[in-house]
Amino acid sequence: MDNSTNSPGPSPSGSTPSDFERWRRRFVLMTGLGGTQEERQADLEQFHGRTCEKWKAELMNYSPAVVFMLKHLKLSGCPVSADRILCSPCDYTRAGGFSPQAGAVALCQGRFFSKHHMEDTLVHELVHMYDHCKFNVDWNNLRHHACSEIRANSLSGDCRWTRELRRGFVAFSKQHQACVRRRAILSVRANPACPDEATAERAVNEVWESCFSDTRPFDEIY
Description:
The protein is mainly alpha-helical and 222 residues long. It has helices at 17-31, 37-62, 64-75, 115-135, 142-155, 161-167, 175-189, 197-212, and strands at 85-88, 96-99, 104-108.
């Protein structure tokens, strides 16, 4: 007796229903067609999360700058494991952050236009972590905060010429210094302990010479 009509069997393409569902969700993610808004958003976050974790693992193992920072954090008594570097959704105003209370770095998944951008961001946050570990930074002290921002922006690659060009800033004289100063002021201004931009600018100016020249743990700006 032929029982083939009693069994649903595979789909005509040879795929199981679960395979088809995965394919459908991938198609929705790639094209933006079909599916609910909630499905599309969930799939996009999952994609960003997977990409962030993949790039994070590659950078922690193969990026010379990241490996160097991790080595010197360990030598300073603050080893950093992969679970201290978190891929997470963030708002659109940032690409990463360092939490002194948690002793952890956040990488804002979906906010990176390339793995190289994530590398610069990770080095920036690891410089903050290094400063917190080695120099006992008081983040409510605006001079302390300004110093760490100057160092992080200068040493991470955040202010290399190509990054500034993408932001729409073009200068042929002291471009690096101008970028470091501008970004440090913006970060200090965002500190809840800072009342206004003039105070942020004053804090950056007061520590500029000593902190810009301090490249530890690097020998020089790379």
